[in-house]
Design a protein that fits this description.
CATH architecture: Alpha-Beta Barrel
Structural class: alpha/beta
Bound molecules: zinc ion
Order of helices and strands: HEHEEHEHEHEHEHHEEHEH
CATH topology: TIM Barrel
Oligomer: single chain
Shape: globular
Radius of gyration: 19 Å
Strand order of the largest sheet: 1-4-6-7-8-9-10
Strand content: 15-25%
Length: 340
Amino acid sequence: MLLTTIAGSLPKPAWLATPEMLWAPWLLPADRLAEGQRDAVLIALKDQEAAGIDVVTDGEQSRQHFVHGFLRHVEGIDFDKRVTIGIRADRYKAEVPTVTGPIRRRGPVHSNDVRWARAHTTKRLKFTLPGPMTIVDTIADEHYRDRRALALAFAKVLNEEARELEALGLDVVQLDEPAFNVYLDDVEAWGIDALHAAIDGLRCTTAVHICYGYGIKANIDWKQTLGGEWRQYERTFPLLAKSRIGQVSLECANSRVPLELLKLLDDKDVLAGAVDVATRTIETPEEVAANIRAVMKHVPPERLFPCTNCGMVVLPREVARGKLRALAAGADLVRATLRG
Ligand code: ZN
């Protein structure tokens, strides 16, 4: 019980991509990039194993961004037609590619990444994919002109991809849906349907990650506007409780999410953020343990997976390593008292 995991991303080595930056450019020439990414995955796996993380990821070392890394391999998207749009309800600007035709997968996107990671760890392996709603919110569209239809088109290619990745030995497929905390009406209208289409037929564990974003200034400023209690999950958790998704990853540490909302998830596994990614201060194991115990008032330890609030891609590597160690050590502290 209390198996630890991370939301997904880890910082990249400074020789691979510009550190501490979202959408960081690659620093290796094209002919050496794939090899460098594979080396970085080995480090990411080793860092998690050394820290004592139970369910590991590839640290998302092979993608520049959690959404566009996948889209690069999808037909119907013009990466030369880039426009700057406001994303997450105009919280911040991003330069995004444009959908110009029917969405189709050109072929496997992350198969080599999963094959490589699977071959180099015996731990349970999770792989993250962008969720359909979050993709739709991170792209311009000149073809479908309907967010639901576009989301379902992406869900179809995500499902093709997820089935292949599962067959390569994944334990968990996670869809990242930070947009679920922004477009609450859309979650109900079509967001859950799109998630279901994306996980259709999967037999491995499925998860959805819904957060308040990376620790970048635009997100920190946004959180200041959300008031004393963040109740976005109150709308989405009852819908997720009825869904076929197995696990829900959410933000708890240092957040204003009222933890009693966790009860709304019924019997789902809860990947609770016990480590904050918006600060460079490394939590002590005791602080992590306190976060876990606070969640345990609402979620039994068998269904609780201590996790990071969100990805750690923009943090310095030593900070991320410290947070991994604190996460595992904090979970150990709680386990020891439960066995007591
Ligand atoms: Zn996140």
